[in-house]
């Protein structure tokens, strides 16, 4: 299953945005209002939960500055990645698009498609406000 957010313009240079997304502490401020838990568990990993959803632990899998940051699920139960593609617009702004990719059976994909779509759109919208 592949989902992507809208492409948003962020008032940070591509390298500043990449640094921001490579720091797991910054994801707390990007989370939806429905977050019920956020905890940094390692320098490169955090766990979060949205109301009514199970906890999800993510870790930084790859940073290709200033173009890409890839988060991946720590658990094999829900194997997926969330990639941030960053493009330079100017010295003070860039664009970002979030790409979610995971391997799920069709029943699971049907159940999570809508909440995951809303989640990545919220992350993108909150990035735009930086």
Q: How would you sum up this structure, described in words?
A:
The chain has 130 residues and is an alpha+beta fold. It has one domain: Alpha-D-Glucose-1,6-Bisphosphate, Chain A, domain 4. The chain contains two helices and eight strands; from the N terminus they run E-E-H-E-E-E-E-E-E-H.
| CATH topology tier name | Alpha-D-Glucose-1,6-Bisphosphate, Chain A, domain 4
The CATH superfamily title: START domain
Instruction: Identify the overall geometry.
Output: globular
Helix content: 10-25%
Mean pLDDT: 94
Order of helices and strands: EEHEEEEEEH
- What is the level-2 CATH architecture name? 2-Layer Sandwich
Number of helices: 2
What is the name of the CATH class?
A: Alpha Beta
Segments where pLDDT lies below 50 for 5+ residues? none
- How many domain units? 1
Count of beta strands: 8
Distance between the termini: 29 Å
Relative strand content: 35-45%
Radius of gyration: 14 Å
Give the biggest beta sheet.
8 strands, antiparallel
Tell me the structural class: alpha+beta
